[in-house]
Backbone:
C-alpha cells in the first residue's frame, strides 16, 4: 500500500456563517476566541449549554474577514444550525450547510501540492484551489484535515497519489490519540466540556470573556474541580458493555460510556491515579484505562 493516505470523513458536515456581524456573533457564543482565527490559523471550539455542558464541537476556519466555516458532526449539523439561528436574533449573518459544495478528508501528509511552506503548528491552515487544509488544532502531530471542493477531490487523490482508507481507520486513530470524536453527542452532552479535556485540547479560551456556559466553565477551571475525565479504554480480554462499572481495589472508578466503534469511560480522577495505563481485572474482562500523552493530571 502507498504510504500516503486519505480518509473520507463522511461523519463531518460543513456549515458556512457569513455576514457583517459574523465575528461578533461567534465570539459571543462559542467557547474559544474567534480573534485567533485567520486565513492561516484555525481553532477547535464548542457550543455549550448555559450550564457549561457539551452540545456541539467543531473546527472553525476563516474564508474572509466576515465569512467563517465550521467543520462539525454530520449527525447534529442541522441541530447546530437551528441553535445558531436561535442566537442569531437580528445579527446580519447567513447560516447554511454546505455539504453540497465541500467534503472533509483526513490526511497523513503535507506535500508540495498542499503547500511547500505548510506550517505544522496546531491549527495551521492554508487555502488553495482544492480547498482548505489545516493541521488539527487540538494536537500538533495528529494529522491534517482537508475541507475540499467536491469537484476537486478526484484530482487531489490522483495528484497526491493517495490511497483511500475506510472510516474505521480514523476511529482507531482518534481512539489511540484519546479523542472522543466518535462518541455520540447524546452521550457527550452528559459532561462538562472540561471533563472532556477541552482545556488540554485547546477548545476553551479563559481570556476572551463571556460565552455560553462560560461561568461554570471558568469556575471549574479556577477551583480545579474537574473530578472526572472521559478517557479511552483498551480491552485486553473478555467483554465489556456500555454502562458497566469499573473497579480498582474494590473502589468504583467510573463506568463505560461507549463501546462502538471504540471504548471510552468516564473515570473519577482523585489523588490516587496509579490505576492508569495498567491492567485492571473486571468481572468479565481485563482492561486498561489509558491516559493520553498530552493529558496532564
Residues:
Amino acid at each position: 500500500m502507498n504510504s500516503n493516505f486519505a480518509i473520507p470523513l463522511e461523519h463531518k458536515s460543513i456549515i458556512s456563517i457569513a455576514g457583517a456581524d459574523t465575528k461578533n456573533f461567534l465570539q459571543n457564543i462559542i467557547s474559544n476566541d474567534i480573534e485567533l482565527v485567520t486565513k492561516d490559523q484555525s481553532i477547535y471550539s464548542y457550543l455549550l449549554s448555559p450550564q457549561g455542558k457539551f452540545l456541539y464541537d467543531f473546527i472553525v476556519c476563516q474564508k474572509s474577514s466576515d465569512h467563517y466555516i465550521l467543520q462539525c458532526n454530520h449527525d447534529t449539523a442541522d441541530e447546530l444550525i437551528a441553535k445558531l439561528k436561535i442566537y442569531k436574533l437580528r445579527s446580519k449573518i447567513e447560516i447554511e450547510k454546505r455539504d453540497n459544495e465541500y467534503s472533509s478528508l483526513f490526511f497523513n501528509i503535507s506535500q508540495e501540492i498542499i503547500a511547500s511552506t505548510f506550517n505544522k503548528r496546531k491549527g495551521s491552515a492554508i487555502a488553495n484551489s482544492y480547498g482548505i487544509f489545516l493541521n488539527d488544532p487540538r494536537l500538533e502531530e495528529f494529522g491534517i484535515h482537508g475541507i475540499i471542493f467536491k469537484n476537486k477531490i478526484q484530482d487531489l487523490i490522483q495528484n497526491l497519489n493517495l490511497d483511500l482508507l475506510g472510516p474505521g481507520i480514523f476511529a482507531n486513530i482518534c481512539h489511540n490519540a484519546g479523542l472522543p470524536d466518535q462518541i455520540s453527542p447524546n452521550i457527550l452532552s452528559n459532561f462538562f466540556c472540561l471533563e472532556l479535556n477541552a482545556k488540554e485540547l485547546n477548545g476553551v479560551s479563559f481570556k476572551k470573556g463571556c460565552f455560553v456556559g462560560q461561568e461554570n466553565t471558568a469556575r471549574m477551571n479556577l477551583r480545579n474541580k474537574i473530578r472526572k475525565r472521559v478517557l479511552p479504554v483498551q480491552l485486553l480480554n473478555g467483554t465489556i458493555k456500555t454502562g458497566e462499572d469499573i473497579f480498582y481495589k474494590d473502589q468504583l472508578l467510573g463506568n463505560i460510556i461507549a463501546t462502538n466503534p471504540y471504548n471510552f469511560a468516564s473515570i473519577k480522577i482523585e489523588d490516587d491515579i496509579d490505576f492508569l495505563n495498567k491492567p485492571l481485572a473486571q468481572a468479565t474482562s481485563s482492561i486498561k484505562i489509558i491516559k493520553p500523552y498530552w493529558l496532564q493530571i
Observations:
- The mean pLDDT is 93.
- The helical segments are 22-29, 77-88, 153-160, 167-177, 185-188, 214-222.
- The two ends are 39 Å apart (CA to CA).
